[in-house]
Amino acid sequence: MGRFIVRRIIGMILVMFAVSILTFLIFQVIPNGDPAVRMAGKNSTPTQIAAIRDTWHFNDPIYEQYVYTMKQVFTGSLISYSDQTNVWQEIKKGLPRTFALGIGAAIIWMVLGVSLGLYSAVRSGGFSDRLLTVLALIGVSMPVFWVGALMSYYLGYKFGWFPNGGYTEIAQGGFGQWIYHLILPWTALAILFVGVYSRILRSNILDTINDDYVRTARAKGISERQVLIRHVLRNSLIPIITLWGLDFGLVIGGGAVLTESVFNLQGVGQYFAEAIGRLDVPPVLEVTILGAFFIVLLNTVVDIVYALLDPRIRLGS
């Protein structure tokens, strides 16, 4: 197991290095034209362009530009061109909100997805299974921004059952108000994933419920409930855990942009979207790299958990 973990960590470092190079090339080299002109905007003056070129070392060799850019990113020294604020400080302000949204929604979609998938598999072919299938398809088909907008208007504005957007810190409004303000964003973000997870788990359970090891467990006199939970569900959850790691990483790494914008949570995703609207390169660059690194890191953790659940993974790697 130790060798497996070391190999995964080395692979993670190499992937992060490749991601940093690719992101740098996308922002600096691949598009035609002078990157300083693109960063300065349409109404820039030659003096502003020259200052940006000097600041970002665009006159230096490409490898020196890469080293300087990565140093700026990882030391938190990038400065926004639109309002001259420190990019990392702005990201730090939004991180708790993004993590609160992502973690809460991830717990909801994991718990509901597993519960509904297990129930649907047990009731396979029945009316409840068909009903859950229809609801899952409806949930998967609805865009998160549309669901969020409907929730915000009807449940927040029209009926007043929930806050119409915004975010309340725990230190300011208490734990109850914190949850109260996040119920709608959590639900809007989780609906899509609940349908996907329930359908995948149902399919996995039905594929494994008659395997040899399951029949052997039944032959030993183990109750059907224990067989389902300890044997069938445990093995069926392995791809679900992998998928959860990918989805959670994507949500934190930028997938919650629309949800944050609809509910005005002022998280990293909304900051990222506003920076794109302003054509403000430094925030977009830093959020892109840090988001990609988080996704790679989380996928490595999921691989290790995957190997702990299934020893065949680490033996075959």
> What is the fourth-level CATH superfamily of the largest domain?
MetI-like
Give me the strand/helix succession: HHHHHHHHHHHHHH
Largest sheet geometry: none
- Number of strand segments: 0
Task: Give the radius of gyration.
Answer: 24 Å
Shape: globular
CATH architecture of the largest domain: Orthogonal Bundle
Integer average pLDDT: 82
Class from secondary-structure proportions: mainly alpha
The first-to-last residue Cα distance is: 10 Å
- In percent terms, what proportion of residues is strand? under 5%
Structurally, the number of domains stands at 2
Instruction: Supply the number of helical segments.
Output: 14
CATH fold label of the largest domain: MetI-like fold
Point out poorly predicted stretches.
none
What does this entry look like structurally?
The chain folds into 2 domains: 2-74, no CATH class; 92-315, MetI-like fold (Orthogonal Bundle), CATH 1.10.3720.10. It contains 14 helices and no strands. It has helices spanning 2-28, 35-40, 46-55, 62-74, 87-122, 127-141, 144-158, 170-208, 212-219, 224-255, 257-263, 268-277, 281-309, 311-315. The mean pLDDT is 82. Helix 1 (2-28) runs antiparallel to helix 13 and helix 7 (144-158) packs across helix 8 (170-208). It has 317 residues and is an all-alpha fold.
